[in-house]
């Protein structure tokens, strides 16, 4: 029997495993993917949103708790557990030294179009480098890591964890028997259900046009998050939180691969131009706020359009002001030509652009601030960065919804315990995307997912070690006190 069993292989799972091992517990980590795909969605991340009251190593200026909280409140529309959200926010201010102790490196402050030099700390080498560093540290500390080990069932007794079950499976051409793994405590951190096409269909259903919207979703994250463990926990009576249709859903290039496209498939020029649907019509304010705060609403917006398709349209003026897409845009010298190339209704498309151009009230354009360039008398309005699209060539990028992770998850508290009928399990904990819906009822802001996963992964690891009978190191004691 192992002291602590961690199920999952992303940031939250690794944080839990490392904290439990540092406390002295024996730890086994079960990663459902092959080794080459380890890390879950964390391999596609880039940064961590961090609270800080003054300039702090790789972060400039200040980003105090209340501003962080207000940013989260705005994107979630109030659908968040304030107590748990503030735990994640506060923990984000002090976790970087611990991360560095496990081999994570941060790059110097960024400035410019991403607007995040003040709020987000970027990982040197991105998320893949982060998870590789954590895996190396876990191996060095003696965490037993198993790959191709997707848990299909959890054995409980009165809400307490007893054992995890691995089904019979084939790995590298070898048939492996079913297994039962006992542990004194367990941390669930196996992600959501974004790669389960049947569950997405069940959640989203059909729209008024008779379409099944989820059939057109691309999965920006890992292909291995099928929600098997989440579904089993819900079937076993674990308390749920969140809406199954809510997710970190981004407007990505429609030409992206079905799975694991990651950050490079995102289209970041939305705020610098206009977005039209298949009918050649605009449908939302492209300049509502800075892109890192609003980019994750656009996947859901596109999901509501005919055929779940849209196009981001810019002209030459926008070039050099956003992260270049991985796929080239469709280019044309005239708007009618662009409409023909995109197979959009030419008359309506040209009218949409001309109406927008005529409505632009151009003041002092500045894509790094909430400037005074806006439209007047146009619905929907564009409230910032509104400049007429009049300088060819024109560029168009096809958009589809790209799901990173789903928000339906398990209800928890400040100790990261799984709850059954409102009662906390004595030895079963949850972290990462399996509980992020407690904080993210809807919406997203860049780097908050990593903040939630790091905070509650570490808390879950501490709690699991305590259940297994292991005391607290100074760093664990500090974290435990902060959480409770």
Automatic annotation (TrEMBL):
Protein name, entry field: Tricarballylate dehydrogenase
Source organism of this protein record: Pseudomonas lini
Keywords for this protein: FAD, Flavoprotein, Oxidoreductase
Signal peptide annotation: none
Molecular function as annotated in GO: oxidoreductase activity
PROSITE patterns assigned to the protein according to its UniProt record, in alphabetical order: RHODANESE_3
Pfam families, per database record: FAD_binding_2
Cofactor(s) of this protein: FAD
InterPro entries xref list: CobZ (IPR012831), FAD-dep_OxRdtase_2_FAD-bd (IPR003953), FAD-oxidoreductase_2 (IPR050315), FAD/NAD-bd_sf (IPR036188), Rhodanese-like_dom (IPR001763), Succ_DH/fumarate_Rdtase_cat_sf (IPR027477)
Upper classification of the organism: Bacteria, Pseudomonadati, Pseudomonadota, Gammaproteobacteria, Pseudomonadales
Annotated Rhodanese domain residues: 4-46
């Amino acid at each position: 029997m192992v002291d602590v069993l961690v199920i999952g292989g992303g940031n939250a799972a690794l944080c839990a495993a490392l904290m439990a091992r540092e406390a002295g517990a024996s730890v086994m980590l079960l990663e459902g993917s092959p080794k080459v795909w380890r890390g879950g969605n964390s391999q596609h991340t880039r940064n961590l949103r961090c609270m800080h009251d003054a300039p702090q190593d790789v972060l400039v200026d200040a980003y105090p708790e209340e501003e962080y909280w207000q940013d989260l409140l705005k994107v979630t529309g109030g659908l968040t557990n304030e107590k748990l959200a503030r735990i994640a926010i506060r923990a984000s201010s002090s976790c970087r030294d611990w991360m560095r102790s496990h081999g994570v490196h941060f790059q110097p402050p960024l400035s410019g179009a991403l607007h995040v030099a003040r709020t987000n700390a970027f990982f040197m080498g991105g998320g893949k480098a982060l998870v590789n560093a954590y895996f190396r540290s876990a191996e060095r500390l003696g965490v037993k890591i198993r790959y191709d080990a997707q848990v299909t069932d959890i054995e409980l007794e009165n809400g307490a964890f007893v054992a995890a079950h691995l089904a019979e499976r084939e790995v590298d051409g070898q048939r492996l028997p079913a297994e039962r793994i006992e542990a004194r405590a367990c941390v669930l951190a196996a992600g959501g259900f974004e790669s389960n096409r049947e569950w997405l269909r069940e959640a989203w259903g059909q729209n008024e046009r008779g379409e099944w919207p989820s059939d057109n979703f691309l999965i920006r994250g890992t292909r291995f998050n099928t929600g098997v463990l989440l579904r089993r926990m819900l079937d076993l009576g674990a308390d749920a939180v969140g809406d199954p249709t809510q997710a970190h859903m981004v407007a990505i290039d429609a030409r992206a691969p079905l799975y694991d496209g990651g950050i490079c498939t995102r289209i970041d020029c939305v705020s610098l131009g206009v977005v039209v649907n298949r009918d050649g019509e605009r449908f939302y304010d492209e300049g509502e706020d800075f892109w890192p705060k609003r980019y994750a609403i656009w996947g859901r917006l596109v999901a509501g359009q005919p055929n779940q398709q849209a196009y981001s349209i810019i002209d030459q003026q926008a070039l050099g002001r956003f992260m270049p897409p991985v796929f080239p845009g469709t280019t044309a010298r005239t708007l009618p030509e662009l409409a023909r190339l995109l197979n959009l209704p030419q008359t309506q498309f040209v009218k949409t652009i001309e109406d927008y151009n005529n409505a632009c009230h151009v003041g002092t354009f500045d894509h790094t601030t909430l400037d005074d360039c806006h439209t007047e008398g146009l619905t929907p309005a564009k409230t910032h960065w509104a400049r007429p699209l009049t300088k060819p060539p024109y560029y168009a990028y096809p958009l589809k919804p790209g799901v990173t992770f789903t928000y339906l998850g398990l209800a928890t508290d400040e100790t990261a315990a799984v709850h059954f009928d409102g009662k906390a399990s004595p030895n079963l904990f949850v972290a990462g995307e399996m509980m992020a819906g407690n904080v993210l009822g809807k919406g997203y802001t860049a780097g908050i997912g990593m903040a939630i996963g790091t905070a509650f992964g570490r808390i879950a690891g501490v709690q699991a070690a305590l259940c297994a009978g292991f005391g607290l190191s100074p760093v664990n004691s500090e974290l435990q006190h902060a959480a409770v």
